[in-house]
Structure formats: structure tokens, C-alpha cells
């Protein structure tokens, strides 16, 4: 097995073999030794190339760091069409889908570090519409410019200013507007969100925030996309949007929330209250019903598993897993049907989105969209919740709450406070 430096040298050596002066795609891979001292996130953040994408599956079994864009796509259907044309089953495209699923930022990386369970490897991608020979020259220059991994800096910036959009008064008013609309049967549920802008005394290292969140926010997907040195979107999300292996589809309804507690017995008791609570069960079952109606169009039946309590660092959620078999492995269709789910938008979907567009005082952008990868063989996207936009010295945190009949504005404010705390407590100690 090879260190990352040795693996990079082996890839560089393979580029000395002449390639044809014609269009094409090549995928050069070599194994890499796993070491407790090596962190792919730190290595990724040390590089001078963008975009950068880091991903860790919530079970911890899959991890990846993708660097540099050979080709970029502004929607998932574009990325899927490229993969179908390339016909390379294990080739992955990484990135984000916005809350508006027609918008995205996904890319085929120049270099990809990937781990599955206890095995890791580096893959160098070559692609050109004109000349693989010329792209190999560019790949050699890329490899020569890579930097050794540096330690990530600590998160110790001084908080200068914090503001909520909307503030508490504005939030409570919007919840009251939503519950009136629900009472008048304009919709059954709407998910309202808050953005919190935290400004610090110096630029915040987004990768360091990602690493800090990864250490403490367990049972979550961890995702990080750096668009440039001082512009990144990241998060630690508990919720799967979908996972597909060939035609097997796995999705879930994650809705209904109660606080967590550090004492295991107290946390268990709170979890039992969540399972027995009518408001939270109704909220979860609304999402289940919506998802089932949507995937009914995609595959051959579905199974809804019994409810579970998902325990996170600050909160606990009600979750029901939903399994199906697709008629065909079509990720673009999965995105179209599943995003945004009732857990992040509401029901009916269009009525809730119209309410959000009219009453939410900020644009969601990447928040409540999805993050992950697609390939011909398999795909997986999480809902981009418990997330933050890092721009220079400012971090925008996002949190949302599902509003249904009987929702109390004060309780919903406390719920978004608890959800935002997953990242807020790392920045403001």
C-alpha cells in the first residue's frame, strides 16, 4: 500500500505513457494506505484548486474528497446525461442541488480520494472533447502543483455581531400566519426557516468548522463544498434524501423533533414522549404519505418501516424509512419527485413553496437542497440541513421547523434554536 504522496507519484508516472491525440475519458486509480494521522479533509483544504468537495456518509463507511473540476454541471440532469454518455459505472459526479432542484453545482473532479470501509484509493480523471494527450499534460501540471496536507487551524475567532433573519418577533408572526393558512385549508404543513448571520473578527476557516462538526455531530452526513478560498457551504445533516444501488431505492421521512439530553435514560424518556406525541406523529406521517405518493410513480411498490427515534447531539427526530424498487435507475427523476420533501417545504408542495417564497425574508439557496454524488452504479444524496454558508468573516447558519395545525410559535423558536446549536456551539464557545 502507498502513502498519498507515493500514490500521487505513481499516478504521475502513469501519465508518461503516451495517450491518443483524440477525445476520450480515462480513470487512473491506485490504492492508498489509511493512517490515523491522515485526514482527507485537511489534505483537501490545503490545495490551491477549486471546487473542493468533502463527503462522509452518516454510517462512516464511505468518505471522499474530490478536487478540481474537469467538467461542471448546473443541474443534476446534465450530470446524469454526461454519465450515460461516458458509460463508466464507477465514475462519480459530486456536488449540490439547490432548494430549487432545477439549480445545482456538480462536477467531475480531476482528482478523487475515496474510502469504503477499510480500503482507500486515489483516482485521477482525464477527459477531453478534443485531445486526451493534451489533457494528460494539464493533469501533470495539476499534480505538480499539489501541496502537502497542513493541520486545520482552531476555531477561535471572536464573535463581533449576530443577527437573526427573521428576528424572534418576525418569526412568531410568520408562524401565526402559517397556522392561519393551515386552518383555512390553504395547506396542511409548511416548513419555515431562519438564517442567522454571525460575523467574526477575522475570516473563518470553513474546513475547520466542518472538522469540528464531524467530531461531535454523530449519526450525520458531513458535506463541505468550497467554491473558492473564502466561500463554502457545509453541514452535518441527519437526513437522507435518497440512496440508490442499481434499482434499489432507500429514502426516509425525518420529521418530528424533541430535545436531546446528555443522560441516556433521560434521552430515552424524551424519545418515548416523541413517539407518543400526536403533533409530531402527524407531522411525520404527512411526510411519509407525500413520499409514498411520489415514489409510487417511480417503482414497483414500497415498504414503510416502523418509526424510530434518531438521537443527535442537540435534538432527537422521528424517522420512518421507506424502501422501493425503481422501474429504472434514474437519479434525475428521483430528484424531481423527492426534492423538496414535505420535511423541508411542506404540503401540498407548491402551496408551501409559494408561502415560503412570499413570507421568508431570505433566499434559501443551497439550504434544504441536497448534497452528495451520482454515478451509473449508485447514488446518494442527503438533505442539506444543519448547514452553514461561510463567506469570509461571516457564517450564515440555517435552521427550520415544520409548522402544522397546533404549532406554537415559542416552541418552534426553541426548536430552531436547538437545531442551529449543532454548529453555533462550535463557533461561539
Q: What is the CA-atom radius of gyration, in angstroms?
A: 22 Å
Mean pLDDT: 95
Instruction: Kindly identify the CATH topology of the largest domain.
Output: Anthranilate synthase
Main sheet record: 20 strands, antiparallel
What percentage of amino acids are in beta strands? 35-45%
N-end to C-end Cα span: 41 Å
CATH architecture assignment of the largest domain:
4-Layer Sandwich
DSSP summary: helix tally: 11
Report the principal-axis shape: globular
Protein name: Isochorismate synthase MenF
EC number: 5.4.4.2
InterPro entries: ADC_synthase (IPR005801), Chorismate_C (IPR015890), IsoChor_synthase (IPR004561), MenF (IPR034681), MenF-like (IPR044250)
Catalytic activity: chorismate = isochorismate
Concise overview:
The protein has 429 residues and is α+β, with helices and mostly antiparallel strands.
Explain what the structure shows.
This protein has 429 residues and is of the alpha+beta class. The chain contains eleven helices and 20 strands. The protein has a 20-stranded antiparallel sheet that branches. The longest helix is centred in the last third of the chain and has 19 residues, at 409-427. The mean pLDDT is 95. It catalyses: chorismate = isochorismate. Pathway: Quinol/quinone metabolism; menaquinone biosynthesis; Quinol/quinone metabolism; 1,4-dihydroxy-2-naphthoate biosynthesis; 1,4-dihydroxy-2-naphthoate from chorismate: step 1/7. This is Isochorismate synthase MenF.
